[in-house]
Amino acid sequence: MKIITISREFGSGGRELGKRLSDVLGFDYYDKEIITGIAKNTGMDEKYLDQMLDTHGWRNIPMMYHHSFAGMAMPVNQTEIMMEQKNVIEQIAKAGKDCIIVGRNADILLEEYHPFTMFVCADMESKIKRCLERAPEGENHTPKEMERKIHQIDKNRARTREIISDSEWGAASSYNITVNTSGWEIKELVPSVAAFAQCWFEHTQK
Amino acid sequence: MKIITISREFGSGGRELGKRLSDVLGFDYYDKEIITGIAKNTGMDEKYLDQMLDTHGWRNIPMMYHHSFAGMAMPVNQTEIMMEQKNVIEQIAKAGKDCIIVGRNADILLEEYHPFTMFVCADMESKIKRCLERAPEGENHTPKEMERKIHQIDKNRARTREIISDSEWGAASSYNITVNTSGWEIKELVPSVAAFAQCWFEHTQK
Q: In a 3-state reduction of DSSP, which class is residue A68?
């Protein structure tokens, strides 16, 4: 089984790279699907969960309630959500199919499966440009506001990783390769990354 | 013409990766050859020049003397050496042959040629291990001493880059890809990197 994990700076195009890579390689793709899994297992609202995990970071998720089978409101704390996320990611690995998992510290959680671990970055200018172009309707951030948002989300990602690992979020020595998307269309980079990954699995399986 | 530049942390195996890559791809390889070129053009001693550039960094090269055609001692300052290095690297590019250039900020100096730029890193433990295994006879550093040496050399590399560029030495967003060699034999990584580079030149030439 081959697992590729993609960690990424917000706005770097890591998600698009993962999706396109999964198409080229014929791997399963997991991203928001993990949230769906957690929502299903906990009974929590998917959209709320997504927003909480992405925007507020682990330490800052307020106490949440979900509905038990019996319809009773039950408190869910941060640790339980993280544990559930871990469960969902481990279930994906245990299914034994080649897959790409974007975000959620899957590289750490699945260390024993020896995933090919990738980090995707870009310079701030490229990230702001990308985020503004792809902003959902109604969101009208200035470039400066977008920069703050990018910093905030990445800070939370770094903090969440810190809790479960010694390896630093975003440091090149924490991943097998780091790809810089600055100045490129993601689709231009896909063949190179796919070629690297394919060779990686052929030549480095220990 | 295809140019690959490799910047690297001391002890990461970047030089070996470059050499092996040049064998696989059939590219010319430039590393110490650049020093030979400078020595030839300035009349300075090659070994001394190498040591000065590698160990002391740009700011700290003491005033040096070379012998003019007439046999007179002539002062050579740091800027002149850097200019000569720039000349030698530009001559390599102008020759128009596919090549790999290791170190010496070739990625910055040859920006207009759109090189594929790579950074090679590793965690400190791997770098110390590698350096100790490859230490020349008579050099008996303790791991702690080797760590200091690695820090010192990399600090000088970072400083030298700072002088000629805004892009930060070692930051993943300063290069197209960053490869982490920790825990791997360099030869295991060569096929993946070669595949990436080949695809890169096929798909991203603008």
A: coil
pLDDT, one tens digit per residue, over B6-40 is 999 999 999 999 999 999 999 999 988 888 888 88
At A95-120, the pLDDT tens digits run: 899 999 999 899 999 999 999 999 99
How large is the ipTM? 0.85
User: Looking at the complex, does the CB of residue A188 fall below 8 Å from at least one CB of chain B?
Assistant: yes
* Residue (of B169, B158, B172) closest to A126 by Cα position: B172
Tell which residue, B149, B141, B134, B116, has the closest CA to residue B186. B134
Q: How far is B93 from chain A (nearest CA, A)?
A: 23
Spatial strand order in the sheet of A99-102: A28-30, A99-102, A3-8, A116-121, A177-180, B177-180, B116-121, B3-8, B99-102, B28-30
Q: How far apart are CA B34 and CA B51, in angstroms?
A: 13
Q: Does A168 touch chain B (CB under 8 A)?
A: no
Put simply, the chain B residues between 94 and 133 with a CB less than 8 A from any chain A CB are: 119, 121-123
Tell me the three-class secondary structure of chain B, residue by residue: CCEEEEEECCCCCHHHHHHHHHHHHCCEEECHHHHHHHHHHHCCCHHHHHHHHHHHCCCCCCCEEEECCCCCEEEECHHHHHHHHHHHHHHHHHCCCCEEEECCCHHHHCHHHCCEEEEEECCHHHHHHHHHHCCCCCCCCCHHHHHHHHHHHHHHHHHHHHHHCCCCCCCHHHCCEEEECCCCCHHHHHHHHHHHHHHHHHHCCC
Are A172 and B173 inside 8 Å of each other by CB?
Answer: no
CA atoms within 13 A on the CB side of B18: 25
Token pair of A74 as six digits:
């039950």
